[in-house]
Amino acid sequence: MIPRYTRPEMAEIWSPASKFRIWFEIEAHALDAMAALGKVPEEAARTVWEKGGAATFDVDRIDEIEREVKHDVIAFLTHLSEIVGPEARFVHQGMTSSDVLDTCLNVQLVRAADLLLADVDAVLAALESRALEHKYTPSIGRSHGIHAEPTTFGLKLAGHYAAFARCRARLEAARAEVATCAISGAVGTFANIDPRVEEHVAKAMGLKPETVSTQVIPRDRHAMYFATLGVVASSIENLATEIRHLQRTEVLEAEEYFSAGQKGSSAMPHKRNPVLTENLTGLARLVRSAVTPALENVALWHERDISHSSVERGIGPDATVHLDFALRRLAGVVEKLVVYPDAMQRNLDRLGGLVHSQRVLLALTQAGVSREDAYSLVQRNAMPVWRGEGQFLDLLKKDPDVSAKLTDAELEALFDLDYHTRNVDTVFARVFDA
Amino acid sequence: MIPRYTRPEMAEIWSPASKFRIWFEIEAHALDAMAALGKVPEEAARTVWEKGGAATFDVDRIDEIEREVKHDVIAFLTHLSEIVGPEARFVHQGMTSSDVLDTCLNVQLVRAADLLLADVDAVLAALESRALEHKYTPSIGRSHGIHAEPTTFGLKLAGHYAAFARCRARLEAARAEVATCAISGAVGTFANIDPRVEEHVAKAMGLKPETVSTQVIPRDRHAMYFATLGVVASSIENLATEIRHLQRTEVLEAEEYFSAGQKGSSAMPHKRNPVLTENLTGLARLVRSAVTPALENVALWHERDISHSSVERGIGPDATVHLDFALRRLAGVVEKLVVYPDAMQRNLDRLGGLVHSQRVLLALTQAGVSREDAYSLVQRNAMPVWRGEGQFLDLLKKDPDVSAKLTDAELEALFDLDYHTRNVDTVFARVFDA
Amino acid sequence: MIPRYTRPEMAEIWSPASKFRIWFEIEAHALDAMAALGKVPEEAARTVWEKGGAATFDVDRIDEIEREVKHDVIAFLTHLSEIVGPEARFVHQGMTSSDVLDTCLNVQLVRAADLLLADVDAVLAALESRALEHKYTPSIGRSHGIHAEPTTFGLKLAGHYAAFARCRARLEAARAEVATCAISGAVGTFANIDPRVEEHVAKAMGLKPETVSTQVIPRDRHAMYFATLGVVASSIENLATEIRHLQRTEVLEAEEYFSAGQKGSSAMPHKRNPVLTENLTGLARLVRSAVTPALENVALWHERDISHSSVERGIGPDATVHLDFALRRLAGVVEKLVVYPDAMQRNLDRLGGLVHSQRVLLALTQAGVSREDAYSLVQRNAMPVWRGEGQFLDLLKKDPDVSAKLTDAELEALFDLDYHTRNVDTVFARVFDA
Amino acid sequence: MIPRYTRPEMAEIWSPASKFRIWFEIEAHALDAMAALGKVPEEAARTVWEKGGAATFDVDRIDEIEREVKHDVIAFLTHLSEIVGPEARFVHQGMTSSDVLDTCLNVQLVRAADLLLADVDAVLAALESRALEHKYTPSIGRSHGIHAEPTTFGLKLAGHYAAFARCRARLEAARAEVATCAISGAVGTFANIDPRVEEHVAKAMGLKPETVSTQVIPRDRHAMYFATLGVVASSIENLATEIRHLQRTEVLEAEEYFSAGQKGSSAMPHKRNPVLTENLTGLARLVRSAVTPALENVALWHERDISHSSVERGIGPDATVHLDFALRRLAGVVEKLVVYPDAMQRNLDRLGGLVHSQRVLLALTQAGVSREDAYSLVQRNAMPVWRGEGQFLDLLKKDPDVSAKLTDAELEALFDLDYHTRNVDTVFARVFDA
């Protein structure tokens, strides 16, 4: 995880301290269940909770032991026994390291998903607020970067809101994918552990028992999780790209908020760079880079191999941390986005009314002109406008063949922006009232 | 799509003929809705359905027109008007090409998903049948490719069943992602078309209206769809890898079915290569290769650019066709897999009982031996077995320090395979009774 | 390969007919070498060349045989013996199918590379010609999409020329990577074939003997090849993105050539969409999608598994065909690009001279003003310009604190575009005289 | 970078301290060149070198300034002026931040490449030594995981040596790709800086001047660099996969070195897991994950956008650090690999001589038996062997139809392993004498 793109809340989930705390809870809950089943003394479970629960695990000490025994879970258990004393011998009985490691990873991914869901909520809130604010702010719609027909800035934002609402649902599904627990032993047969222990731990940790674990929790779950993060990242890139376009010098319909103190702003007042959204574009690439290795992690050999582990040490923290940061940054960008409705109107007007040519064509056809003739009428009035010789509406009014079919009032109506926004309410209702 | 990895059912969905049929239906349903709204004569809609519905669209003719006008939808509409006559002028009014193209793509992806769901069902049926057949067939569980503890072959298959059951649910969700329709005009404002037209077409085509379309249907939906195919492909690779491992000469616990006629089988009877599952491994890579471009397709410029189109012309057919083929091939491989329980037992016995060392260790501990001493007892009996000097059980029985703690009967019980399969019922119930 | 993005020259390389012709040549050259070594009768080699060389292999017949024997090379050899007669029994002796398949694949990839090199040459020629044409055409340089300092349009193109010159060198290296031949038998030990046969075939086919083949030619070579195609695709995307930006309505400094016949051009004269470069953007994604599966193909099991084969049946033709098409399309776009120097100048002037603020700042500093004061002087004259209240140069001239340090002539010199193009010659010499 | 997969040498390259040192050197060398050109006082350059050269830059202080000015290079320059005093005002004149940032990144990537080259050399040395040691150690060659024909363990390793020798050459090329320097100003026109400054800095830093930089150094160079790392990673995965296969319980022809102290080794002597090579498999996935974002970084907008930056903050250190670690780990695994020639021989003999069936078939054909009859003869003797009823050679000797054509001595010769190793010298000469 890159420090400057890291928020402490998410980093905390992946800290050694958090990890050891989760390991402890898994072991201690398992012990509870074993005690309830009469497999170990209830006293042992109580002691472990008391002493271990109160302890702060010494990460350096555990690292030191690991360097010697070359096994992370054994290192932890050794340290735990240093804290708990002889009762520690009941801990982990019949369990395998992966029971702890995989269940812990899923707890971390679930917690990460919870933060990401809150992040998406922040993005949604910002988008909704700005979409409502600019519900009727006219703005040119562009296909292929070329002016097409009018839309509103609010509609643009509503579309992104809808995309992030979908992302939210996908994140919920991704969270459910990895919200499973395995306490099933060396090859998943529960040979040395009662399945009820797994059920107890699962419940206690907010998870469900994994249907079939084979030492490991199957990695198609994690593949789906990271693939989902990749899709969310792409939706971020989509909105970031929109803002970058709107901010470019020739368009300048909106700008990222630029704080007063930021160096260089006023000697070159034009040089306000959309660096936040460019950064988001890059972060989207980084988050997406987790998808392929996560897919490659699925085909482990037989009941497990450990190739997935190094991958997850990388993409687990990195993808969640960077996505968390990106979503928060995006929420801030949207909230504080400086919008220039005048510039939007100016750009709309820029082509002398040619953006209405399609409507004029349709109106002529509906007024009985053949498609071919209508096309030719539009064309002969559009070309001078394109060369900068007049406004489209004026020329049409003056063209006798046009005015024979459409009155001035009818023509003016064709240039009415309100026409294009008639159905904004309908779309907004779909987005925000659903 | 690679011909040898193509099934006609899926290829058909992507044929020009299917595409033009879907285009026609979209246009004709839209016309119905416009007629119902009084925008166009009912007669026109009727005529279009009658003449167009009966027609076989001439793909070559449409291609010919397209070469001239350089626009696929206009080429189709021109050809349609050749078939339908003057009534054709009411077709497509107020619509934009993408309304047809994007809705059609989604219809195709939905149909492809339906085939894929049926494919997964075939895989599930094969897995369930073989899992039940081998529910109690003992087989060594392996972690890191090394013998760990016993499991059953049925449990292995049950795990893959559970994975494909998850894939099924994911495909359902992916299908819902793309089951949307857009008939919203040049920039998605419904400027020239009533939203009720979209509602009608959506319903008629088995889709839902897209919440916000901006000329195009947002590509995060398709990204999620293809990402899901990638996850399914990885689950195929996972099972394929298992079978490839089981078939290797030194393991040979199972073999792909090898038809009598297949060249080279009997002069080199050992040379039965797991070529089908190797092929599935490759196909999984191919299908997954659609994921990244689909993610890159999300960030279109403003209301749309057409960069997504060439990508989808590739990955649309390719990923669905190859995944369809792969799933069917996999179902066949599983159905006809030749399983060798004797070989499984032979491999289980191969290490002279060392796979039970973990249980012996645990039993000694539970019998009051310290962990350290237990370890040392196991070790001194395990090493000769590892050097090929005897069976583990025999040596343990002969070791006075061991027999002081565990009777022969107790020791024999520790080598009982049934112990490891006690919970198979529980796991199967989770998988198949859920 | 998608028909509309396929040129016949490249498709031909991948046709079954070409493949069988290459297979024949490999077998016949190998036979020559065996005859020269006295392993087979010279007569046999002569007959095979005569009859086989004259034959057109019947693809349908070979397919028919393959359906029966389920082995492509055996099917071909059977068909060859139908053509050649009994002498065919000497063909393929001591060889393994992969000797033919892998050597053929490399011949195809080498030929594809040759076409791609010619394609890049076409791109280079177009870029050089247009770069020289616009060597001194002033144009605003933009960082972050925001006006920065002046550059020339020729410099932009020269930069892309340099990138494609690098791509050319990379393609040469990629070609060399795969220009190897393997005729080394079942596990690459030359057990049943003399290494001199391989040397002969290699030379005859324009290849080098593979250092170590293990039934297959190692796939790191192909991974490097496809990775290189991915980089070339990204350079295409880079130039395509530049053009798409230049064509957007608000910028409109250049446009893709729009043929007179293209539908819809003149009724909506503004609606000339950069569809070719958008298409190139998509094709770049498609070509790049070959990189990951090619990387995944490297780790074959032991001396070979066949998982790479299905991948290569896809990416081999697809990546080369689409890249070939994309490069040719790009060459055409550059050649015929409609460039608007007036618009470039207009955009340059758009900010009232603020793009020169950096130079003014520097000049003031060099004239002895402290950095802080200089900044403040620039700022107080820049802000009114930014608000649309005057030209920067005029305001500076009128500012007594500025004119105390810089004369009008000095100030004017700071706004001289030639200043920015002084070193264009130097850069062009680096690019075109290297 | 993941701490446990990080070597200090490589991490050091990416440390803030190294970065600021490189920044300083770039600035100071540029100052030298400016002084030589008479643009700044020589005294200034001398002072900067003296004071700055002796200084240890205070990373925390620079971070503190950056938090205020939100610009990393300005923060550094501010800190530098704190150290150097008023002479610092001559530093960075006419330069742009990217001149420093991009040149620094390339210096870091070049240094990383140098470490990686040394790493590959370590891998090559280990492979050569072990290949020579086992040049004639017989071992079964396997295609599709199935026994094919004999090879030697040395040949296997020689093949991997050849692959890493190719990787070395590719890394050299990748190093050259990024060994460029840009000191060309805001949009690469050298508007405010003399191109000779760039030449001087380039030479001083061991780089070449970038042909055309546009504020940034073009990212196709970096894409090629990271793509090359991806290929190297795949070659690591290839060798790691081989070792994992050789270590699996049923094969056990080689094992990763297992240190005496490693927990759990002797109570379960069979449970020596190939965790290092599994780890390398995962690391290969991680390193490869840099390729796609690096390819996506190429298409920056106009003269630059900053989206590449966050990507490179991630993949720059991560991909080089993890690859460096992986190569060193691989070298160690190969050096210390425990090889079991007896087990290789046992596996070779496992099929009762059937691996020679192909040779017998050929010999019969050469002895005048028709291909069909030869096949049938081989088949009828192979099947009993396959069922475990005898050795292939014995049965062939007893078959009168076989012995009519081949004497016992001739048959025995067909089972001679030396036959398969006749050309080992030839191959080794290609690999090691080239």
UniProtKB/TrEMBL annotation, chains A, B, C, D:
Reaction catalysed by this enzyme: (2S)-2-[5-amino-1-(5-phospho-beta-D-ribosyl)imidazole-4-carboxamido]succinate = 5-amino-1-(5-phospho-beta-D-ribosyl)imidazole-4-carboxamide + fumarate; N(6)-(1,2-dicarboxyethyl)-AMP = fumarate + AMP
Protein name: Adenylosuccinate lyase
Keyword vocabulary terms for this entry: Lyase, Purine biosynthesis
EC number(s) from the headed UniProt entry: 4.3.2.2
PROSITE patterns reported in the protein's UniProt record: FUMARATE_LYASES
Adenylosuccinate lyase C-terminal domain mapped to chain residues: 352-432
Family under the similarity heading: Belongs to the lyase 1 family. Adenylosuccinate lyase subfamily.
Taxonomic lineage: Bacteria, Pseudomonadati, Pseudomonadota, Alphaproteobacteria, Hyphomicrobiales
GO biological process: 'de novo' AMP biosynthetic process; 'de novo' IMP biosynthetic process
The protein's annotated pathway: Purine metabolism; AMP biosynthesis via de novo pathway; AMP from IMP: step 2/2; Purine metabolism; IMP biosynthesis via de novo pathway; 5-amino-1-(5-phospho-D-ribosyl)imidazole-4-carboxamide from 5-amino-1-(5-phospho-D-ribosyl)imidazole-4-carboxylate: step 2/2
A Pfam family annotated for this UniProt entry: ADSL_C
Species assigned in the record: Kaustia mangrovi
CDD domains membership: Adenylsuccinate_lyase_1
One GO CC term on file: cytosol
Gene Ontology molecular function, alphabetical: (S)-2-(5-amino-1-(5-phospho-D-ribosyl)imidazole-4-carboxamido) succinate lyase (fumarate-forming) activity; N6-(1,2-dicarboxyethyl)AMP AMP-lyase (fumarate-forming) activity
